[in-house]
Structure formats: C-alpha cells, structure tokens
Amino acid sequence: MTDSNGGIDPAPDSGTSAGPAEANTTHESEGGSVPEWQQEIESQPLVGAVESLDCLLRDFEGNAALCAKAQTFIKEQQKRRDVSFSASRTPGDGARGAEADEGRVGGSGEDSVQGTEGAWAMRRIRKDGCCFYRAYMYGVFLYFLRQRESIKVFIRRINEELLPQVHEVNVGAETVADFAEETVENLQKLESPEASMQTLDDIFNDTCSSNYIVVFARLLASTHIKLNSELYLPFLTAYATVEEYCSHEVDPMWVEAEQPQIMALTAMTQMPVEIVYFDQSPGEEPGKCTCRIICSLSLLRLHCLDYSR
Fold it and tell me: Known PROSITE patterns for this protein (predicted)?
C-alpha cells in the first residue's frame, strides 16, 4: 500500500478536535507552500537505517555535557550486551528471555538494535510529532518478530479486549476498527517463516501502514486515559476533562506524546518502555523514564532516545 492519504479522509480543519478515526494521516501544509523545516523533516525516512551508537558523539560534538552522557549510555549498553552474550552462551540454558535474546531475530542474526558486528546500534525516527508512537510500535513489532509464537495471543487480545474498549469510548466512530485491522494484518506478516527485518522496515516505512499503526497506538492511549480519568485528570491541569485533553493532545496526528500518553499506551499493550533523555543537566548519567508493567512480557526493554542538538 502506497496511498499517501492512507485511505482516510483528511480532517476538515487541522485546528479542530476531530477524533482519531477522522485523523489526517498526511502532513500537508495549507496554501500549498511547504516551509523549509517541514521539507527537511519529510525528506527523512519514517524509520531510518541502523546506525552505531557512536553517531551520538558526532551529533553532540562540541557539547561536553551531552557527549559525557552519550559516552555513559554507550558504555552501559555495551555492558548489557556483554552480559546478554554471556548468558546466551551458558551451557544448558535453553530458555532465553527477550532481553537475553536481543541479538537475534528468528535465528538469522539480523537485528535493528545490534549491528552486524554485535555492537549496539540505533535507528532514527522521523521527527514529525509521531516519533514516540512510531518508535514504540516499531519496538513492539520487533519483539513479536523475535517471539513469533506470541503473535496470535496478542492479536486475540487486540480483537477481544483492546478493540472493544476503544469502541466503548469512541461510540459512532465507524472507522476505528480499520486501524486495528491494519495493525493486525501487519502483525500477521511477521508470522511468515520468510519474515525478516526487511519485512518490518517495509511495514514502518510504508506511509499508509505506518500511519495506521500510529493512529491505532493513539487510540489505545486515549482509550486508557478516558477509561481511567481519575488517574490522569489531576495531572492535566490545562484541561477540564480527559475528553478535552485527548481531543487536543492524543487523538490528532502530528501531536507529540508526553508522560500521560506514554503511561497510557504501555498500560494498554502491557509492554514496558525506557526513555533516555540527553540534556544539559549536571552529571554524566542521562535521564531515564521507565514505564514498566508487571506482566508476562516484563522482560521486554525498548529504548527511545530523546535529545536536542
């Protein structure tokens, strides 16, 4: 699928609070004039190729504070890799968890986290306001590419548990199921014995598929917030209701995720995430925000890097 509109009718006014089922999944500028900064963003792939973590040092060149944090992070990941590698070589250790198996995909040795020589690596996500959702869902799909026996269980959960909840808080939004269906269809592609990292990259670099998955992630986040308003409303000081908050900050495309959305999405998927921040704060340790859910998938660890040059 290559339809740039993603098969969704654009919202009549980008400033309205149309729900996610009516979301505009293209990032077009009104009046036909595209600003230079937007052209630069749109020239980037939705999900980039594998890069060495050392590229962070090049990005932060000339900034001692950020370089120090990057060096600490790189050493930490190398140490984690060494521990995982040692664990994988332990005689008699047949059962390997997700974290110990981070260097393999389907036994092929391909991976988006580790480079071809075993060094930890990273990918860049297009900075279009959907970067967290896209990065997170890429990580979720990557987990299932490695743990294919779990795909059917998660699909069943989408259809029998998550989608009914989404419908509950989006009454009358007939196209809600379309986003779940697209997500499920792409998960099913990973069940094929021929599925590889290229399959995953193709899914997330296809504008239609990638944006449908992002909208589904937004739906999951807004659903959890609406169904658990007592947990979130005390922190949403700029809005009177969670519905108002979601209509402005969660449902629309191109709006960045903050802590409430991250907590809500991980609660719905029951898959944790660790976000690493590089900033000008004192010390050599980068800031970290971890959303962990105690569940059968608690070994999964996803890294989302957040920094400004």
Answer: OTU
Give the model's pLDDT for residue 292.
57
Cα–Cα distance for residue pair 301/308, rounded to 1 Å: 23
User: In this prediction, what percent of the chain has a pLDDT beyond 90?
Assistant: 60
Which top CATH class is 125-271?
A: mainly alpha
The residue extents of the domains of the chain are 125-271
- The secondary structure of residue 254, as a DSSP letter, is T
The rounded distance, in Å, linking the Cα atoms of 117 and 302 is 21
Is there a contact between 70 and 81 (Cβ–Cβ < 8 Å)? no
Among the residue ranges 78-82, 180-184, 267-271, the one predicted with the least confidence is 78-82
pTM of the model: 0.81
Handedness of CA 124, 130, 135, 141 (dihedral sign): negative
Q: Mean pLDDT throughout 68-78?
A: 93
Closest CA to 214 of 256, 174, 270: 256
Residue whose C-alpha is closest to residue 178's, from 23, 13, 300? 23
CA distance 269 to 41: 29
Largest CA distance in the chain: 65
> Which H helix or E strand runs over 65?
helix 64-88
The 3-state secondary structure of 181-242, one letter per residue: HHHHHHHHHCCCCCCCHHHHHHHHHCHHHHHHHHHHHHHHHHHHHHHCHHHHHHHCCCCCCH
Question: Is 300:271 a contact under the CB 8 Å cutoff?
Answer: yes
* DSSP single-letter state for residue 45: -
pLDDT at residue 258 greater than cutoff 70: yes
